[in-house]
Design goal:
The protein contains three helices and eight strands, in the order E-E-E-H-E-E-H-E-H-E-E. By secondary structure, the chain is of the alpha/beta class.
Length: 145
């Protein structure tokens, strides 16, 4: 499982010109499931994301989590995170989880985040989406499990 975590001032996701999710200050997460991923990875990454101290404290140090700042989170599925670009010029997606399993893991990840009581928004699994991101910093991390 791979996720890209971006600290944002705001972010939104649209499908067919309609905004289906938008947040203010918080985290924009791109979620990619790979073959063999399970609920253990979902639980570990959800906990990591909620408690990752990447927001500045009063001294300007990254010392606060999304929970600490009562931030918002937008999660968008992105199967291309499982892409392999090591050979040739066309990515291979053999490592991507099958769509049914990937959607189950995506929904479970969101469910874990919702338990935090923060505002959680999501994209539409499998849809052609347009994502607007105002990265704060920029601060971006790639987490794998």
């Amino acid at each position: 499982m791979k996720i890209v975590v971006q600290r944002v001032l705001r972010s939104s996701v649209s499908v067919d010109g309609e905004v289906i999710g938008d947040i203010g200050r918080g985290l924009m997460i791109l979620f990619g499931a790979e073959k063999g991923d399970g609920d253990e990875a979902v639980n570990a990454l959800a906990d990591k994301v909620l408690n990752l101290r990447i927001f500045s404290d009063d001294e300007g140090k990254m010392n606060r989590s999304c929970i600490d700042i009562e931030g918002e989170i937008l999660v968008v599925s992105q199967f291309t995170l499982a892409g392999d670009c090591s050979r040739g010029r066309r990515p291979g997606f053999d490592n991507a989880a099958p769509p049914e399993e990937a959607e189950r893991l995506y929904k479970n990840f969101i469910k874990k985040l919702v338990g935090s009581k923060l505002k959680i928004q999501e994209g539409r699994f499998g849809a052609d989406m347009q994502v607007d991101i105002v990265n704060d910093g920029p601060v971006t991390f790639i987490l794998e499990r």
